[in-house]
Amino acid sequence: MPNHFPKKSFVSVTEATKKMEHYCAYQERCHYEVVEKLKGMNMIPEAIDKIVGHLIQENYLNEERFAKSYARGKFNIKKWGRNRIVRELQLRQISAFNIKSALKEINDGDYLDTLEELAQKRLDQIRETNIQKRKKKLADYLLYRGWESHLVFEKVNELI
Fold first, then answer.
1. Residues 49, 66: one domain?
2. What is the rounded (10 degree) CA torsion for 138, 75, 86, 135?
3. Is the pTM of this model over 0.85?
4. Which residues form the signal peptide (predicted)?
5. Residues 17 and 57 in one domain
6. Is residue 113 domain-shared with residue 136, that is, in the same domain?
7. Are residues 117 and 144 both part of a single domain?
């Protein structure tokens, strides 16, 4: 009778360490992502601690560097507001100190320019004729992207 269960492969600590070095070298990672990946490789907690310790010591893993890179990337590429960036970093269990440090990577002038550009672009796409519904659609879009409500409502009232 054939065995329908996949074989559980066991990875040595050395192999797992090498894999994690590549994983972290490819792109910035946070501790949470690395630990989850190691759990997925069926590593025991002692091995996970040892590997994470090694990655930190060898500078493959740096939570502050990750947070700064993440904040810059999500703002510059995805045009996310500070609220969304903070929420996503919190989901990855980044410390409040590192989140604060990461937000300093976003220039205030660029931040407001990006909000203006994003709001204008979205407004041009909204086909709604009712002014209240138009305002709501624009506000909902910007709030979803993580922009602070006081900035959103200021911008919506300015544009419509």
1. no
2. -10
3. yes
4. none
5. yes
6. yes
7. yes
137 and 112 share a domain?
yes
Tell me the pLDDT tens digit for each residue of 69-122.
999 999 999 999 999 999 999 999 999 999 999 999 999 999 999 999 999 999
- What would the 3-class secondary structure string for the chain be? CCCCCCCCCCCCHHHHHHHHHHHHHHCCCCHHHHHHHHHHCCCCHHHHHHHHHHHHHCCCCCHHHHHHHHHHHHHHCCCCCHHHHHHHHHHCCCCHHHHHHHHCCCCHHHHHHHHHHHHHHHHHHCCCCCHHHHHHHHHHHHHHCCCCHHHHHHHHHHHC
* Residue 120 lies in domain: 108-159
Task: Give φ, ψ of 142 to 5 degrees.
Answer: -70, -40
- Per-residue pLDDT for 7 more than 60? no
Structure tokens at 73: 């990337």
Percentage of the residues of the chain whose pLDDT score is greater than 70: 94
Does 4 reside within a domain? no
Q: Predicted confidence band at 11 (pLDDT cuts at 50, 70, 90)?
A: confident
Provide the domain count of the chain. 3
Distance CA 71, CA 92 (A): 13
Query: Which tokens in the block code for residue 157?
Result: 């009232």
